[in-house]
Amino acid sequence: MSKFDKSKTSPRYSLIWVVIVLIAIAIVAKASYTMTAEKDRWMQVAAKQQSDSVPVPAIRGNILSWDGKLLASTLPEYSLYFDFKAMLESQADTLWEEKADSMCQGICKVIEGLNPDTLRMHLEKGKKECRRYYRICKKTVNYPELKQLEKLPILKLPRYKSGFIAEPHNRRAMPYGKLAHRTIGDLRDSARYGLELYFDSILCGKPGYKNRKKVRNAFLATKTVDAENGRDIVTTLDVSIQDLAETSLRKELEELSANSGVAIVMEVKTGDIRAMVSLEKTKDGSYEEIRDHAVSDLLEPGSVFKTASMLVALDDGVIDTTTMVNTGNGIYEMYGSKMRDHNWQTGGCGYIPMSVAMMKSSNIGVSRLIDEHYKKHPEKFVEGLERLGLRDDLKIPLYDYKKARIRKPGENAYWSKTTLPWMSIGYETMVPPIHTITFYNAIANNGKMVRPRLVKQILKDGQVVKEFKVDVMRPQIAKPEAISKIQGVLKKVVTSGTGKPARSKNFAVAGKTGTAQISKGASGYKSGAIDYLVSFVGYFPADKPLYTCIVCIQKTGTPASGGSMSGKVFHEISEGVMAQAVKTSVLDAKDSTSVMVPDVKDGNIAAADNLLSILGINKKWRNNNTQGDQQWGRIESDRKRNLVVIEPETLSDNGHVPNVRGMGARDAVYLLENRGIKVRLRGRGKVQKQSVGPGEKIKPGMTCELSLG
Q: Which of 125-139, 480-494, 671-685, 694-708 has the highest mean pLDDT?
């Protein structure tokens, strides 16, 4: 029998259960009462005690050119909103009825493109719906514009009365537009590419915060940690050279309707990249910087690689510039595959020395020399390329950068008998333009290879906190004798070989052309229309090199010529760079082997006289005029006497067409349009012909076409 008596214990448990249920009901009832009847009271208490943490954003650092020009900067902008509920609670709606029209008119004066009536209707809609965060317009305003808005009726009231909200945010501005856009980078919600992305952690800084507590209608700061603004990046880019390189390349790409193009200008002694352009054809036919072709294009470089092949052989002492090679009739069979020279249809080059093989860019000549001396030990040839630094990691501060890919026997890479001869002329290797220009820059620097430098310094509050010094990767890539010989060969390529279009009348140039078919992967080289990579890489002035430049153009179909296409762009860039540097480096620009008398255009002889004085070029005035007070005249270059002869000419405005033949376009257009004659230009250079002859009487609406050449 159980020792517990149910009749006595059950009433006790029932009582406990009833008490628990009553307590639960009381709790629910009290909670319901608090949530309904006492809601406002307790919300006010909570508001008085509310405390939160507000982030304080850091200002992103600037990106600067080498001489301190702003390339990318952060500017504050403001989005505009209305809190209509706050305005109505402050009983400012009566003021709204009186001042809304004048406020809308004032807003439209500050923000262009808005209509006062349309804006008023838009705002009335938000007011009717009692919106808390109603966008005034899609446009943003800068700080000066915001200050103008805050002087307008209604908007000048305190925020809790007017409901006017100006929400700040930062915009990344590029003062030079899309110039060097791909190199500098882009910033939307976050950094996307270029230097903006690579140095993002340095540029963005560290955000701060402030703790605040709400007391009635105001927030009181209880603790503040200041933001650490981002640091500035000083690049090596030169705005003028970048603009020159981009303009010259874009013009040639448009003429050729090419697929893409690259231009890089590097300072010889330091490796500083003064310009880096990567243009690509878009769907609408324009050219924009979409990818970093300059540092990421893994393409077979073609004949510009022949310089490396010959330098390896010269450095190893197995050949000399006078070493003879038989190129036959321009077609030569190498291990079952036919190799052709560019002139095979006209009989080839025959029996020629190595220097001529380079001048004529003979595939057979270069490949036979390399195959003859390295076919038994091809790894020694690749080791020679390693000595030249072509397989080194350049560590370019761009995430798209790719290292050159040059295969080597025994490194799990496919290797056949044809690999060596074809590699020697720039096939079966993948070398981005940045690697090629670095190698040629070392030749210009007498064998010293410096790492390409894109960023010089990091600044904090204007003070240098980190400096990227000139980094010598290899003190000597080859013996001085070998470097000297290859330098001589590269000069001859420009003076007498395939690089003639890159020549300058004012200074010596050295370099090498390249034309290569672009492989289409598994489809090889003969799938559909053939794509070509045409290149020219060289340095100037050749005797005392200041800059190295490479131009690469990808195009579909023939004609395809590294000399006439890329060499032409190189010529324009080098001429422009030296013209900009005339005040500081013109003496270095002089070619000691040539007579330095420039071909000066007729026209404004006062300007020509001033420039010739700066250049230190001998000049003589005819008619005993040595003051340069005459503005117009004719100019002759007397190379026998090594001087420029200036002859003043009086141009009377007697209603007749002046003689502008021999003048530059700017002076000719000025003289003709100053007399009411419309001008059309064809070609470049000096005026060769004018459709309206000198001395003809000027008629209203007359048009004169000038042919330049």
A: 480-494
The b/e string for 616-632 (b: 16+ C-beta within 10 A; e otherwise) is ebebebeeeeeebebeb
pTM for the whole thing? 0.70
Containing H/E element for 609? helix 605-615
Percent of the chain with pLDDT over 70: 85
| Cα–Cα distance, 377 to 163 (Å, whole number) | 82
Phi, psi dihedral angles at 394 (to 5 degrees): -80, -15
Lowest mean pLDDT among 375-379, 401-405, 443-447, 684-688: 684-688
Helix (H, G, I), strand (E, B) or coil at 610: helix
Kindly give the residue spans of alpha helices, DSSP state H, lying in 172-328: 181-184, 194-198, 200-204, 239-256, 293-296, 306-316
234, amino acid identity: V
According to DSSP, residue 134 is labeled E
Per-residue pLDDT at 643: 74
Question: According to the 3-state scheme, what is the secondary structure of 536-596?
Answer: EEEEECCCCCCEEEEEEEEEECCCCCHHHHHHHHHHHHHHHHHHHCHHHHHHHHCCCCCCC
- Residues 214-247 as b/e (b if ≥16 CB within 10 A, e otherwise) read eeeeeeeeeeeeebebbbbbbbbbbbbbbbbbbe
Tokens of 166: 């100006």
Q: How close are the terminal C-alpha atoms of the chain, in Å? A: 129
- Entry field: residues in the chain: 709
CB-CB contact of 389 with 442 (8 Å): yes
Phi, psi of 431 (to 5 degrees): -130, 110
3-state class of 399 per DSSP?
coil
Least Cα distance to 471 among 364, 575, 536, 394 occurs for: 394
Tokens of 161: 């009365």
Stretch 615-629: mean pLDDT, rounded? Answer: 61
Q: What is the pLDDT of residue 658?
A: 83
- Alpha-carbon gap, residue 491 to 493, rounded angstroms: 5
Cα dist. 213→44, 113, 227, 437, 570 in Å? Answer: 14, 41, 20, 61, 65
**296 exposed, middle or buried (CB, 10 Å; 0-12, 13-18, 19+)?**
middle
